[in-house]
Amino acid sequence: PPERKRFYQNVSISQGEGGFEINLDHRKLKTPQAKLFTVPSEALAIAVATEWDSQKDTIKFYTMHLTTLCNTALDNPTQRNKMQLIRAAVKFLETDTVCYRVEEPAALAELQKNEWDPVVTWAEKRYNVAIGSSTSILGPNIPASTKETFVSHLASYNMWALQGIEYVITQLKSLILSMGLIDRHITVEKAVLLSRLEEEYQIQRWGSVEWAHDYDLCELRARTAAGTLFVHLCSESSTVKHKLLQD
User: Are the CB atoms for 11 and 22 separated by under 8 Å?
Assistant: First the structure.
């Protein structure tokens, strides 16, 4: 949506029957489909309230990634159920960024091997699966057992967290990098760098459009970080919640 003038002074949260609500002065925040904006955890409510409170003279909706994710979870505009969300996430394995390798130039092939192999190896050990990589345009042949293992793992998350997981996967174009990030094996900065490895290689070689590269990088980091935080806050982690409230 376009920017609009900030129409409220104070932002607060309150607990209602369905969870935690966001108050803009005396107005209750609503979703695009006019549902009451209610989130399952106090920590997530605080994070969303911070997004609204940080807006200046105008409300820049495109900077409010947590609010957008909550709206998606509440309105479910695509009307997908839990298994459909899981299957969509696992389907990314077939085109996973870190599984597609080049043969030429040799320097990029070596870079991919050095940077991506450790993450693939971690995932194979962490989930006891076979993933591999391929230089074929058809990509690697991912075993059915590997896909089913990830289906089972993702089924342990609730619907809200799954919305966040799919969002992170869409940013990184990689289920493997996303799970490494959500499992705290790699940082947001590392995950983003690995997802853009070929682009960063070309930039190092040929240079970049200065402002465009910096903007794209910052935007991708912001979206990836927001999605990861959303997953943790929706997974009802008391550790994350306690730390956020302390900060």
Answer: yes
> How many beta carbons lie within 10 A of that of residue 24, not counting itself?
19
Q: Which two tokens stand for residue 153?
A: 């793992």
60 with 155, same domain: the answer is no
Q: What is the mean pLDDT of residues 11-17?
A: 93
Residue type, 10: N
The answer on 182 and 197 residing in a single domain is yes
Residues 63, 84: contact at Cβ < 8 Å?
A: no
Residue scoring higher pLDDT (90 or 238):
90
d(CA 25, CA 36): 15
Is pTM beyond 0.85? Reply is yes
Q: Is the peptide bond before 32 cis (omega within 30 degrees of 0)?
A: no
Domain boundary among 75, 103, 122: 75
CATH number for the domain that contains residue 166: 1.10.3580.10
User: Hey, what are 35's tokens?
Assistant: 């549902």
CA–CA separation, 124 vs 233, rounded Å?
A: 26
Side-chain half-sphere of 41: how many Cα atoms within 13 Å?
23
